């Protein structure tokens, strides 16, 4: 009889496993929202509690309006009417001064053709002389730094295809430019940006906290990975055919990095001799899945609450309200992730299976222990002067736009195109984070 029940129990386990797999979506796993079933709306993913305030501007806020400029490009003076509006028939109305002024801001995109001419002459000694063109003027007709910068500004950053960018430049600026010319321009600009991007990479190696992540890309029909290492002020992208250790070693930054590295708890990152901080948002999703699957066990909900409190403390640290987490709270976070025999242990961290106690179910108990990863799992709420974010959003946001570019263009046609995109994207993303003028920076670079 026992031999017959054992296969039934295994079948029951398999059914539960398949049901749990079908119940996973973007709110309780790492699946993207685009993979959700279109006719099943998942519960809200945000763990924030409603504030009770109405949406929109709050009472007492200071509004922002556009101010008049002191030096407009054009003046339009509206004269007085020919007759008086008082009805007495007066016609001699004298202008006494400015009554009011209003301004209209227009956007004008037009080309400017600059012709360089050299002259010839004859010296007193009888030798013929010619002046020379300035450096960079090499072809009979070519695009200047502003045109090259605008071509790059309109393609890799806003993720517009070359064909559409060429159409915009032709229709609005009168430039008869082809998609092939745009591609060659991007290639030249990427070569000139290698030195600034190298400086960005060197600054990332010296950063106290950085975040790493990767996403898939198609390059010439093959599956590649776009790796990123970033902070709130720096971005470095790197394409590679591999995902794991080989790609990260070729990236060449993590082997030199000595700060705190935030990532999604992948073994390829843990090979490096730096401090690690795991993304707690992934833990939250797994806890949500456990709480939905086993509502009779309250530990998953308690852990969700605890991580939410840790997130609030991390946010206060980022605003410098606190320099570090209070020691009492830090010890509470550490205690919550240590082994305990008084409660079931959550299987949310990759640690060896904890054997079940005598008389318990044949299923091993999930483990709340972080094992050797406890410090990395709770580093964002640890008592440390270095502010470590609760999540890995810095890296994920830097990969969001390249992922959108894949939807626009489909894939890169060559390894060179993928490398050029990574260089330009690293440069422009860094400029945007530091609130620099991207267009003028490209003009100076090109």
What are the defining features of this structure?
two-stranded antiparallel sheet; about 40% helix; alpha/beta; extended; five-stranded mixed beta sheet; Nucleotidyltransferase, domain 5; 14 helices; about 10% strand; about 450 residues
Please provide a brief summary of the model:
The protein has helices at 2-22, 145-154, 162-173, 179-192, 194-205, 245-251, 267-270, 280-293, 299-318, 327-336, 374-377, 393-409, 415-433, 438-445, and strands spanning 120-122, 128-130, 209-219, 222-230, 235-240, 260-263, 275-278. The chain is of the alpha/beta class and 446 residues long. Among the domains are: 205-278 and 393-434, 2-Layer Sandwich (Nucleotidyltransferase, domain 5); 280-340 and 366-391, no CATH class.
Reading the helices and strands in chain order gives HEEHHHHEEEHEHEHHHHHHH
Number of strands: 7
The largest sheet has its strands arranged as 5-4-3-6-7
Summed up, the helix count is: 14
Average of per-residue pLDDT values: 78
**CATH class categorisation of one domain:** Alpha Beta
How far apart are the termini? 81 Å
- Helix coverage percent of residues? 25-40%
Largest sheet: 5 strands, mixed
- The secondary structure category is alpha/beta
Please report which band the strand proportion falls in: under 5%, 5-15%, 15-25%, 25-35%, 35-45% or over 45%: 5-15%
CATH architecture of one domain: 2-Layer Sandwich
CATH fold node name of one domain: Nucleotidyltransferase, domain 5
């Amino acid at each position: 009889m026992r031999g017959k029940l054992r296969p039934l129990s295994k079948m029951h386990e398999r059914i539960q496993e398949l049901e749990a797999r079908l119940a996973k979506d973007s709110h309780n796993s790492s699946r993207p929202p685009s993979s959700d079933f279109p006719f099943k709306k998942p519960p809200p993913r945000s763990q924030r509690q409603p504030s009770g305030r109405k949406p929109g501007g709050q009472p007492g806020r200071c509004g922002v309006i556009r101010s008049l400029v002191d030096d407009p490009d054009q003046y339009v003076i509206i004269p007085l009417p020919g007759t008086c509006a008082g009805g007495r028939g007066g016609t001699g109305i004298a202008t006494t001064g400015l009554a009011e002024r209003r301004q209209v801001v227009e956007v004008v995109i037009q080309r400017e053709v600059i012709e360089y001419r050299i002259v010839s002459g004859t010296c007193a000694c009888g030798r013929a002389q010619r002046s020379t063109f300035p450096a960079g003027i090499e072809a009979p007709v070519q695009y200047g730094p502003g045109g090259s910068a605008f071509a790059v500004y309109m393609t890799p950053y806003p993720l517009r295809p070359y064909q559409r960018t060429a159409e915009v430049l032709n229709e609005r600026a009168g430039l008869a430019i082809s998609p092939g010319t745009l591609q060659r321009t991007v290639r030249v600009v990427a070569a000139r940006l290698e030195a600034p991007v190298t400086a960005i990479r060197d600054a990332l190696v010296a950063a106290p906290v950085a975040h790493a992540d990767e996403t898939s890309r198609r390059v010439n029909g093959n599956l590649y990975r776009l790796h990123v290492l970033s902070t709130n002020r720096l971005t470095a992208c790197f394409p590679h055919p591999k995902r794991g250790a080989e790609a990260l070693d070729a990236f060449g930054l993590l082997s030199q990095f000595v700060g705190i590295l935030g990532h999604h708890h992948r073994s390829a990152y843990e090979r490096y001799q730096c401090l690690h901080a795991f993304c707690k948002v992934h833990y939250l999703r797994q806890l949500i899945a456990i709480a939905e699957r086993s509502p009779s066990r309250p530990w998953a909900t308690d852990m969700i609450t605890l991580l939410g409190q840790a997130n609030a403390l991390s946010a206060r640290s980022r605003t410098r309200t606190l320099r570090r987490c209070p020691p009492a709270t830090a010890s509470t976070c550490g205690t919550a992730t240590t082994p305990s025999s008084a409660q079931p242990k959550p299987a949310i961290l990759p640690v060896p299976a904890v054997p079940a106690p005598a008389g318990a179910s044949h299923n091993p108990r999930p483990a709340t222990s972080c094992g050797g990863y406890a410090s990395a799992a709770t580093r964002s709420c640890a008592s440390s002067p270095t502010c470590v974010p609760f999540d890995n959003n810095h890296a994920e946001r830097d990969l969001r736009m390249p992922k959108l570019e894949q939807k626009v263009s489909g894939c890169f046609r060559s390894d060179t195109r993928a490398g050029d995109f990574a260089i330009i994207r690293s440069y422009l993303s860094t400029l945007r984070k530091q609130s620099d003028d991207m267009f003028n920076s490209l003009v100076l670079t090109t």
